[in-house]
Amino acid sequence: MLRLGLRWAAAAGLQAPREGAADRMIDQQPGGSPSAQAPRPSRLGSPELTAQGLRKVGYLPNERIASVVYLGEQLAKPVLVEGPAGTGKTELAKSVALMSGMRLIRLQCYEGLDEAKALYEWNYKKQLLRIQAGQSSGPPGPLDAAAWSDLESDIFSEEFLLSRPLLAAIRAAEPVVLLIDEVDRLEVETEALLLEVLSDYQVSIPELGTITATQTPLVFLTSNNSRELSEALKRRCLYLYIDYPSVEREQEIVRRRVPGIGERLAAQVSGLVRSLRQIDLKKRPSVSETIDLANTLFLLGAEEITPQLAVDTLHVLLKYQSDIEKAAAELTAGPLT
């Protein structure tokens, strides 16, 4: 391609680049290997090693999950994990922390979560005690301006600051995993605060100044799709969707989590759960509930699932009476497929 360019330039009467200029042109082009960004030091190693590490701690990822987790660390970008409830989104973040040896910091989201619970707040009780101690140790009467200034600078110091999960992750000296669980339950105002923190990994505290992260935490945001997240938040994240596992993968999960269960019983459990998920239910069985059913049948000494046993144990999988009645009617009418 470069030689074609030189011949074209000569035919057009243009001066050919001087020796070495072509190499500099390559260096200046976006994506050229000489100017490509060097890989960051990784605690995960590679997508393959990430998959192996997750398997060692009991999480069974597919290739896509392992790749996105690895890229999230290498690109220093949050990973937004969406999917139905109970498909292993939260467990993924916990498993990454366990396999990498990083500390897990978790922010559980809910309606009404504000800055004081997500970011930081001042220890008001301790501040009040300090003010009372300052007044009692000085001369009677109100404090003068100088004394009050000293007291104010004292009560708004590190000693009185309560770090919440977001600030704790930013201030951590060592790499950490930050799990922001069920982010779709946040109100729009709190989501904007979250967006500001994740943009630059720094927090501005009026009394102390700006606190900037010395390391970039590996961030996982989970969502059950109860509402649409803002485009601005999604743009800053790598996206990962985790659906219910296939029958074969769920069977492997059951056999890994319930040692000693027979292969036939594990296959029947995963098949039954898959069939129930095809019914229009208020809440479909999660992977954790599949494991609960497998443990239940194993403890009962069952070697196979009969129609009656399936009906009798529906309460382990389903948590609404209307769902149990609907599933029981399907099971008694004939085997689910």
Question: How does the SSE layout of this entry go?
Answer:
Elements (H helix, E strand, L loop, with lengths): L1 H10 L9 H8 L18 H10 L6 H13 L3 E4 L6 H12 L2 E6 L6 H4 L1 E3 L1 H14 L7 H11 L5 E3 L1 H7 L4 E6 L6 H13 L1 E4 L3 E4 L5 E6 L7 H5 L2 E4 L5 H11 L5 H15 L9 H13 L7 H6 L1 H4 L3 H13 L4
Parallel strand pairs: 1-8, 1-9, 2-5, 5-8
Antiparallel strand pairs: 3-4, 6-7
Helix pairs in contact: 3-4, 3-5, 12-13, 12-14
| Helix coverage percent | 40-55%
Strand order of the largest sheet: 2-5-8-1-9
Shape: elongated
Question: Radius of gyration, rounded?
Answer: 28 Å
Distance between the termini: 59 Å
Q: pLDDT below 50 for ≥5 consecutive residues: which ranges?
A: 1-35
Count of domains: 3
Helix-strand makeup class: alpha/beta
- The number of helices is 17
> How many strand elements?
9
**CATH class descriptor name of the largest domain:** Alpha Beta
Return the string of H and E elements. Answer: HHHHEHEHEHHEHEHEEEHEHHHHHH
Examine the coordinates and then state which fold CATH places here, giving the name of the CATH topology of the largest domain: Rossmann fold
The major pleated sheet works out as: 5 strands, parallel
CATH homologous superfamily assignment of the largest domain: P-loop containing nucleotide triphosphate hydrolases
CATH architecture level-2 label of the largest domain: 3-Layer(aba) Sandwich
Strand residue content: 5-15%
Q: Overall pLDDT, averaged?
A: 85
